[in-house]
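Why do we bother with a discrete structure alphabet at all? Because it lets us treat a fold like text: something you can write down, compare, and reason about line by line. To make this less abstract, here is a complete entry for Fructokinase. Read it the way you would read a sentence in a foreign language you are learning: slowly, and without expecting to understand everything at once.
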Amino acid sequence: MRNESTTLSTPNFNLIVFGEALIDDFPEESVIGGAPFNVARSLAQLGAQPLMLTRIGDDPHGSLIQAEFARTGLSTLGMQVDQQHPSGRVAVHMEHGADASQHRFEILPMQAYDFIDAKQVLHLVQQRFPEDAPDLIYFGSMIQRSAASREALFALLEADCCEGATKFLDLNLRDGQASVETIQASLNYADIVKLNEDELRFVAKHALDEPYGAEISLGNESLRAACLALMQQYMMQAVIVTLGEQGYFYFDADHQIVTSLGRTMPSMPEGWVLRDTVGAGDAFSASFIRGWQQNQDLQTVLERANQFARAVCGVRGAVAPDLNFYTPWRV
């Protein structure tokens, strides 16, 4: 497999996305995924120029991932190719219960994305950002399950050329993939953290020096208090809590609250049908980051991110197969 990036003109990157690009292997088909890769692909289609830092294997799955980079307009400059380890893969098993069939996701160990090379990362970002830091660095927790990729991430976050970049943590907890220590380290780096209500409860219980004892409910005061406890320990700029069908709750260091709670959601376009919720959170992150980068009004940024996430629920998978889907959302 040949990395084509050196033969093509490279864009002026303004964002970095660090993390896994992988294949979800369903019994009936293989689907390209990985939360960071979902975010990077959406960002590219929304008009941003993200540099995706990942590692794939020299194998057929790696070729599929590389083709998806090209399809969605992503540069492969930050793609490392591993000759020893396979491209990331999640084995999806169909389990038949009493009521319905369900999918069980088996996140396989020792995948190429577990071995992102720190020296290659630093060499690249020092070349690409010699004067001005990127606007933002996006990262999650799953990529930190291995020492090598965790070391590469921390080296990136601490690099002199990235000083001043906003660090955006999309927690995305997966069973058994991140220790409490990893979560705490991630929160220490983060300027903005995005998590769902269950992850907020987990972090409040396990990742604070003084465990948060109050019940966290879907109300402004309850969410505000939990977010405040998180922000006071980790000195971050903002917390975004996604609330599924109820939208979002945003709280920042100025104690500003912006939320969809208590408001009627705008109706979806005629003909919209819920397909699945895969990648809805990733879509929210991508749209928020793009709007934030454009210095749009915060209320507008959050509303647009929420609507974009809902729109993505109307297509199969995390990224639309028809890229014309993104045209009305591009800014």
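What the structure line is telling us, in plain words: The longest strand covers residues 88-96. The radius of gyration is 19 Å.
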